[in-house]
Amino acid sequence: MDWRRHLPNLLSGLRIALVPVLLWLAWTGHATLFLASFAFSLSTDLLDGYLARRMRSGSELGAKLDSWGDLATYAVFPLCAWWLFRERVVEQIAFVIAALIAFVAPTAIGLLKFHRITSYHTRLAKLVAIVMGAGLILYLGFDVPALFQGAVLLLLVEAIEEIAITAVLPEWRADVPSLFTALKLARAAKPAAMLALALLGLPGAASAQLPDLVPGVSDVRVELSASVAAGDVAEGCAGGTTGRDLVRLSLTTRNDGPGDVDVGDPMCPDCVSHPNEVCGNPDFICSPAGGHNHPHYQDFLRYEIVDPNGVVAATGGKRSFCLSESMCLDGSSFQHSCSNQGLDAGCWDVYQYSLGCQYVDVTELPDELYMLRVTVDPENKFAEVSEQNNVLEQPILLLRGPLTDVSLEKGSLLLKPEHVFRVRARAPETLQLFGSKSDPTRDGGTLYVLDTIGGDQIGFGLAASGWKRIGKATAPHAYRYRGKRREDGACSFVQVSRGSLQAHCSLRGDHTHFALPAEGNIFVQLLLGVADRRFCASFGGETLRNDEILVRRRDAAPTADCDAGD
Predict the structure, then answer these.
(1) 544, 494, 493: which is closest to 518 by C-alpha?
(2) Rounded distance, CA 350 to CA 261, Å?
(3) Do 187 and 158 share a structural domain?
(4) If we measure between CA atoms, which residue out of 518, 276, 278, 304 comes closest to residue 413?
């Protein structure tokens, strides 16, 4: 288990644990320590939300802990301030009362409607937390009230927004960033009466049960030169029937919410004789995909290939054939079928990678590290408990053949027998260091140095255990090797980055035979991983020195052919 994914919840728990500390510091009169602890508590409030978004580890538990931490901290703060700064509280009593009302009212109204603490974490609430925290510290600690007064006014606006969100939402949910989002969710609820009930705050709205659709991806594979059915081409899933490069995947759509998804009868004509015709239920189309000629629910699923710049480079054409239960947690009998489509709570629907259109056609895309993005209900046609878990992403590498050799240019080389070999070279353009087959942390590497005319050659083995990946695992910006500094005939440092190659190796031991002066160009080649990705440079540029004691050159000319040293 990765403990880092639980760090946001630990920070929220720490904020709750600080509440008795704040009370004790205020009771014992430690004003400075109290303000410092309060400032630290506020910093954990900001940090836990940031980490939850960055690690994509947000959860209902996390939202509750965050809300309880906020509630407990601000609930005890007025008492602590009264004990420590009574005169200043009295001076701003009108603003203090306004702040207390703005703090208590949204929570109380949420409890009345949903019988649980609201956890909206709106954008405005995050801004208020920062401004109010700074305002309280400035006023209580330094007698500067202006920011505190402004924060109270902002808090009143934020309280009105939270009350409006509570009135609009038909069901309790966490993490509603704005009133606009709440209105969108309310409009998406199919029964129009639900919105009216919610606006009135009647108990019927709170009892509404919403589904929660969550995608799960497996069996992701790149299939080269594949053949697909003509129906797939007719539906727009592929650009041709043969020679297609496909990213295939199996998809599981779970309904993790308390409510069911009910779509109903597609009301389609005979799809064999009416391909691509929109059905009586306009959400369905007669799909020819895979040659099956059956109704597909449109825009239920979206598959996209996203390039490193965040641009959608390719999109799949899969809809959804016969949305119904493939399996349920409780083993209950299935309620839906192809003529009455939907997905019960606690059940899931599975589409195997072998089905028609269950892929993205990437034939026209260059080799690159991409992101496969899967979205369920991309048009937000269903009101759900949460829209935050409808998207799933994972990296996908297109690598149709051996990685392209990289010719390096510029830089410097130094050879000194029985002493040292050093080389620096730069890449003419930014390198992309991706792909497990060219990862030296798995399969190591080898560095070769060759006198192209004399034929003398030395090689340095670079074991996988000495390599370290620098940066993200899916898109590293460098690989660095460190060996034993004083070991004869070995490299103490090698690094290949997105812009350069550097190496520092010993010529002692087995490599003392390397003859100087070098008769021709010095060809340097680094091989990485089992894919033999090669970084090559030929140092035949300006010679600064070339004799039995030292060879020093710079400005390597680009190596047109990485096989020059073979």
Answers:
(1) 544
(2) 15
(3) yes
(4) 518
CA distance linking residue 314 with residue 237, whole number of Å: 10
For residues 224 and 150, state if they share a domain. Answer: no
Handedness of CA 114, 120, 125, 129 (dihedral sign): positive
DSSP secondary structure code for residue 403 in this structure: P
What range does the domain containing 248 cover? 213-398
CA distances 275 to 40, 175, 263, 316, Å, are 63, 42, 21, 19
Reference 528, options 561, 485, 495; nearest CA is 495
- The answer to whether 245 and 313 have CB atoms below 8 angstroms apart is no
Confidence at 53, pLDDT banded by 50, 70, 90:
low
Beta strands 409-416 and 551-554, pairing class: antiparallel
Residue 543 and residue 478 in one domain: yes
> In angstroms, rounded to a whole number, what is the distance separating the alpha carbons of residues 104 and 82?
18
Statement to judge: residues 109 and 236 lie in one domain: no
Q: What is the CATH number of the domain that holds 137?
A: 1.20.120
Taking CA 24 as the corner, what is the angle to CA 18 and CA 26, rounded to the nearest 5 degrees? 105
Three-state secondary structure call for residue 327 = strand
Spatial contact of 295 and 310, defined as CB atoms under 8 Å apart:
no
Choose the final residue of a domain: 176, 206, 236. Answer: 206
Answer yes or no: do 152 and 224 share one domain: no
pLDDT at 196: 42
Residue 513: exposure state from Cβ atoms within 10 A (0-12, 13-18, ≥19): exposed
> Tens digits of per-residue pLDDT, 392-409?
988 887 777 666 788 888
**CA 176 to each of CA 130, 165, 347: distance values in angstroms, whole numbers, following the listed order:** 19, 8, 26
Q: How far is CA 185 from CA 109, 120, 405, in A?
A: 19, 13, 52
Q: What is the DSSP string of 106-143?
A: HHHHHHHHHSS------HHHHHHHHHHHHHHHHHHHH-
Instruction: Record the pTM.
Output: 0.45
Q: How many CB atoms lie within 10 A of CB 276?
A: 13
Whether residue 334 is found in the same domain as residue 421: no
Total count of domains within the chain: 3
The pLDDT tens digits for 481-526 are 998 766 778 899 999 998 899 999 988 877 777 888 888 889 999 9
Question: Which of 354, 377, 398 is at the close of a domain?
Answer: 398
Q: Is 482:466 a contact under the CB 8 Å cutoff?
A: yes
Residues 373 and 225 in one domain: yes
In the predicted structure, residue 304 carries a pLDDT above the cut 90? yes
Whether 252 and 321 map to the same domain: the answer is: yes
Quick check: 396 and 305 in contact, CB under 8 A? yes
Pairing mode, if any, of strands 551-554 and 341-343? unpaired
